[in-house]
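User: My instructor asked us to take a sequence, write out its structure as tokens, and then describe one feature of it. I'm not sure where to start. Here is the sequence I was given:
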Amino acid sequence: MEKKNVVDVKNLKKTYSKKGANVVEALKSLNLEVKEGEIFGLLGPNGAGKSTFINILGGSVLKSEGNVNVWGFDLDKNPRQVRASIGIVPQEVNVDPFFKPRDLLELQAGLYGVKKNDRITDTILKLVSLEKQSNSYSRSLSGGMKRRLMVAKAMVHQPPIIILDEPTAGVDVDLRIQLWENVKSLNAKGVTIILTTHYLEEAEKMCDRIGILSHGELVALDTTKNLLNKIQTKVVNFITDKKPNINENDLKSLKVISNENGKFCVSYEKSKINIDQIINYLIAQNIKIFDISTDDGDLEDVFLRLTKN
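Assistant: Let's start with the prediction itself. The structure tokens for your sequence are:
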């Protein structure tokens, strides 16, 4: 069954104009949709328009043109309902050092107008693994705990969509993996996640679909798998019994990266060569192949190709 779109953006534009300066187009006719229950990655270099897009959804930036629909609510007609449908976890960790996590979540719930009986503070603390620290001052929390507290703050009004803006920027590898697990458990409970990130490994591991922004325009929107399949260049390492004699011109698009005794590496384009052709080429020289390892490239290759212009 086709999942419904929970974020639907059509021809979204944002222009900034300053006196005596050129008009800056932060977003140029952006069209994208996010489906219910997915982890959607929004990638792009600095200045691509990711933060502008998130701030428009969150209500802190006004769009110039276009239509935005979130959880069935039109941003122009129902801005409050749009904001109520979203929890935003910002890049910056801004937690009052003299507040305890429980008190902070209670205060945040009050700001959202959540009645005392409807608050799920304990559930949220458990979900982000902070139940043991619920009554400790925020200043005593580790960096990872503060990050998780930011996620908890975004959840007090039980939004169906959570936006994480660069959630692991500047954190160590262990903490990054811990946050990934947190996000996956939220998603498993039915929360739709929109994730902006600089870490392409993060997007590759976490996201069902990815949109790549460059200069305010969407240059790609596809499943992570399809984007990775678009990488044409493949790298292959061979372990052999002797050094092969390779003429690059014998096979179309073949490039020799290294060729030493019993160990060599080549790259080729998948659309032009089949790996069987390379194997047969070696066998014709009476070369025994002991091992083959391949590298299909990663999201970084796609990202660089799509954003370099």
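For the description part of your assignment, you could build on this observation: The mean pLDDT is 87. Try explaining in your own words what that tells you about the chain.
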